[in-house]
Amino acid sequence: MQKYFKSIGSDLPSALVVFLVAIPLCLGIAVASGLNEFSGIIGGIVGGIVVGIISGSNLSVSGPAAGLTAIVSAAVLKLPAVEAFFLAVVIAGVFQLLMGIFKLGVIGDYVPNSVIKGMLAAIGIILILKQLPHLVGYDKDFEGDETFIQASGENTFSSVINSLNHLTPLAVVIGVVGIAILILFETKFIKSIKVFQIISGPLVVVVVGVLLHYFLSDTAQPFTVKSVDLVNIPIAKDTKEFISFFHLPNWSFITNKDVWITAVTLALVASLETLLGIEAVDKLDPMQRITPPNRELVAQGAGNIVSGLLGGLPLTSVIVRSSANVNAGARTKMSTIFHGTLIFICVAFVPNLLNLIPKAALAAVLIFTGYKLAKISIFKDYWKKGWEQFMPFVITITAIVLTDLLKGVLIGIGVGIFYVIRSNFRTAIFMVQDGNQYLIRLRKDVSFFSKPKLKHIFENMPNNASVIIDLTKAEFIDQDIIDTINEFDMNAPERNIQVTVKKSTYNESHKLVGSDQFNISDSAH
């Protein structure tokens, strides 16, 4: 517990930044999901406090996720009542608890690093592209959207282009000034000043944005041509109305088949997004700490149970807010817990104050976060690593930008597997030549994918050659490879080729190379 209090100087300012970023995202995702805005707020509060307390992650932030929007909106329309959907969220949480208990969190370990890095860079690019319209005052798409095809009928690129025809001058001023402040805060000079080591750049951007809007919105043209969109939190007139924002699930729908289908779908998708999220955030952690995946599933399950019981959206670990948390300098999970607490306090007691924040100021913060995730240096690093790493990285980015997070990651994993197989295929068979003598060595696992290469070597072997086929380094040889070697050996005398096969005792005793199926012996023909 002592380490958490030691880092409070870093965690509290970071929590404030994440809190400011989370508010519009929670509201936007709730509206896009077809639910009341307050459902998103509940998800943000629970994701911060409940998941934050139980989770073993130091930097991951949980809350409503854009990746679940399509599932949630379809379920809300299909289920008989919104209370039935909240019941599905509770059941999904129970499934996640069981997944954590039965240690299914290892799924995330099978995602290649190139795909994880590609996912982070793609999120950065999406943040920049999606927030540019909000930066200039074009707020047709909801905050937090990550899909290529938008609900408005536009796509990511057309939205950016159309935003140029709907510029709000005051929003542009607030956004550009905000980005300039963030760039300034990255300079060595500003970092050397003690006061700016305490006050974070994003917080200054928000305060300046509020002041610019307050003083310039009432002036003459051009700033009064269009109004600037502000954060819009539901405001309760009294305590009774505030309590009415919360909704209990209706347990009478427990036997409804669609409730269970929705619950299973939410549990699987939310768990996969969470496991991908914590893998990505761990790679951003400057202290290189590792999040226990099974404990994270338990934490997410508990969070979804509480969120569903209160009428909130389903939760996952969310990369955008987590990235903002890392960039703001958070050190422990107290930042996540503080941000959830801040959401509750401000929504309950000072919502009018939050509704003064221009969305353009928050867009500036998110665009700068996106830039840090998708720096040119990251692309250069993967280019230097070779095609086996660069191609899955780039294709993952492209797929996520043109589809959505989950589809893009699955495509990236597929490409990564292809390059792993390709790499194994290229290194499984090794050949050296010395005059008319040839050594063909089979190494480690030799699958049927290596058959074309082996056949090509045999077909191009010159007449009168002496060939040694060394199997001593192989742990597995596919039957197709055995058949190919046998066929070559049978036809070798016709070309006056001398064949010698070397097999180890390990190969013989474990029958990994099917020694009883070889027609050739260890002696030369």
Automatic annotation (TrEMBL):
Topological relation to the membrane, as annotated: Multi-pass membrane protein
Native source species: Ferruginibacter yonginensis
Keywords, alphabetical: Membrane, Transmembrane, Transmembrane helix
Keyword Membrane: yes
Domain SLC26A/SulP transporter: residue ranges: 10-391
Protein name (Swiss-Prot/TrEMBL): SulP family inorganic anion transporter
A Pfam family that the UniProt record links to this protein: Sulfate_transp
Listed PANTHER family: SULFATE TRANSPORTER
Membrane-spanning intervals of the chain: 12-32, 38-54, 85-102, 114-132, 167-185, 197-216, 259-281, 302-324, 336-354, 361-378, 390-421
Domain of life, source organism: Bacteria
InterPro entries assigned: SLC26A/SulP_dom, SLC26A/SulP_fam, STAS_dom_sf
Subcellular location: Membrane
